[in-house]
């Protein structure tokens, strides 16, 4: 079946970096972009950025621009999201989501990865 | 960025009620709006895309309407399994979500 499986929970200190993976299966990987969406505890959803699984083109939200890098590995059908210079307000569940319309419609979501930033 | 203002939140209703959630965009987004359901501890689930199209496999009691800046999401007859938080999301330009509507059983 079509699914996205993310890497496990992370605990990081302020100023560190985290890299979360999202492995796709059950569909033709290059045909759909992937977005990353995060959710701070008890809060709403925040879009972070998008990457083309076809050619690696990216589009990042202004709020994380300069601290985030999204990459793909077509050989393993995996997308990565690296966030640097972590702060306490980066504590959140991070989701990857398949974009079925090439921009902005997310039909399949990963299970989420909890990233905790704490000294 | 386009702001999406959802109301009401929270929303309390009884099983069998007709439930309506509204979402107002800060500028014209045509029909570039989706609606998601999120249950506690779970990832969001796509229910409605392009303002009014029902995602495959989603029960027909869910519907959406609107265009421009004003949009409505409706559950025609609330079921116990519909208890969740609902989000609107626009993709006219930079993607943004509404703040969410927590739906509770009265």
Summarize this, please?
With 119 residues, chain A is mainly beta.
Q: What's the layout of helices and strands?
A:
The complex is a heterodimer of chains A (119) and B (106).
Chain A: E1 3-6, E2 10-12, E3 18-25, E4 33-39, E5 46-51, E6 58-60, E7 68-73, E8 78-83, E9 92-99, E10 106-109, E11 113-117
Parallel strand pairs in A: 2-11
Antiparallel strand pairs in A: 1-3, 3-8, 4-5, 4-9, 5-6, 7-8, 9-10, 9-11
Chain B: E1 4-7, E2 11-13, E3 19-25, E4 33-38, E5 45-49, E6 53-54, E7 62-67, E8 70-75, E9 85-90, E10 96-97, E11 101-105
Parallel strand pairs in B: 2-11
Antiparallel strand pairs in B: 1-3, 3-8, 4-5, 4-9, 5-6, 7-8, 9-10, 9-11
Give a structural overview.
The complex is a heterodimer of chains A (119) and B (106). With 119 residues, chain A is an all-beta fold. Chain A contains no helices and 11 strands. Chain A has strands spanning 3-6, 10-12, 18-25, 33-39, 46-51, 58-60, 68-73, 78-83, 92-99, 106-109, 113-117. Chain A starts with a strand and ends with a strand. In chain B, the strands form 2 sheets. In chain B, strands 2, 4, 5, 6, 9, 10 and 11 form a 7-stranded mixed sheet that branches. In chain B, strands 1-3-8-7 form a 4-stranded antiparallel sheet, with no helix packed on it. In chain B, strand 4 and strand 5 form a beta hairpin. The interface between A and B is medium-sized, with 21 and 23 residues.
């Amino acid at each position: 079946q079509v699914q996205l499986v993310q890497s496990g929970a992370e605990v990081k200190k302020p100023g560190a970096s985290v890299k979360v993976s999202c492995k796709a299966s059950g569909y033709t990987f290059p045909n759909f972009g992937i977005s990353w969406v995060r959710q701070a505890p008890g809060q709403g959803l925040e879009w972070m950025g998008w990457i083309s699984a076809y050619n690696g083109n990216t589009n990042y939200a202004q709020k994380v621009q300069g601290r985030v890098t999204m990459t793909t590995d077509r050989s393993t059908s995996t997308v990565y999201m690296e966030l640097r210079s972590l702060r306490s307000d980066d504590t959140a569940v991070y989701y990857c989501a398949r974009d079925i319309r090439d921009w902005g419609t997310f039909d399949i979501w990963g299970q989420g990865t909890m990233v905790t930033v704490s000294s | 960025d386009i702001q999406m203002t959802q109301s009401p939140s929270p929303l309390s209703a009884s099983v069998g009620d007709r439930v309506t959630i509204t979402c107002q965009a800060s500028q014209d987004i045509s029909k570039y709006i989706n609606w998601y359901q999120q249950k506690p501890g779970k990832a969001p689930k796509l229910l409605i895309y392009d303002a009014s199209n029902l995602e495959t496999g989603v029960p027909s009691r869910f519907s959406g309407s609107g265009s421009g800046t004003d949009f409505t999401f409706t559950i025609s007859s609330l079921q116990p399994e519909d208890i969740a938080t609902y989000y609107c999301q626009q993709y006219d330009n930079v993607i943004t979500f509404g703040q969410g509507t927590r739906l509770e059983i009265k």
